[in-house]
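Protein modeling request. Please complete all fields; requests missing the sequence field cannot be processed.
Requester role: graduate student
Desired output: 3D structure, token encoding
Chains: 1
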Amino acid sequence: MPTVTAHAPGTFSWPELGTVDTQAAKRFYTSLFGWQFKDTDMGPNGVYTIFTLNGRDVSAMYTLMPEMLKNGVPPNWGSYVTVENTDRAAEKAKSLGATVVMAPIDVMDHGRMAVIQDPQGATFSVWQPKNHIGATVLNEPGSLAWTQLNAKDTAGAKKFYPALLGWKVQDDEMPAAMGGGAYTTWLKADGPAGGMMTLPKEAPAPSHWLPYFAVANVDAVATQAGTLGALTYVPPTDIPGTGRFAVLADPQGATFAIVKFSTPA
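Delivered output (265 residues):
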């Protein structure tokens, strides 16, 4: 696929890993996905690592700050969505009942960001690009292919995200083999933005956004992840008519999914 040069507003454009052991994470993800990396010294803010795939930016990583750990933030994959104006998005989010965890800030000349927690507690970031659009490769093995909200309150999410990001809602019934129930696809102007399903009430996790990385073979990559120290939350599973996926946690505990779609997302 060609290099991505721009992301339409409402597109999940940048997965970012916050972790407690960047050297271990580098070993894990470069082995699992074939990523390379480049480090940038951010001074008092530590080192910011950009993972690349065949020379194209695919994701990033930073060390969780002491105050984040003190507040109980675990290793996690964060999700950035492109917006036209970060300040307006943050203000709109607050008016819709969200919490702005990090107020809009400029990231040098790369872009402007804010971190938002939706009304049910799922955290995501908004990104107004300047010199950095985010990922320059999507939907290829080793790159972001889907982003899904696992939500305690899907009805509330259907009000919040369309009002904030302009998404439309498409509801479908999940196959019986997947347990049935509704599956929501978020639609932006140029196609799907991501998805949503109900998080089981007994699930220990709060509502959260989950990135899915494309792979050529879900079973092989899940097995390899296990040998590298990952945990398996959902073993390789077919999605009838759609593809095959698994949900994993890296050795530091950050959760992510892998997927092979029958047809591109």
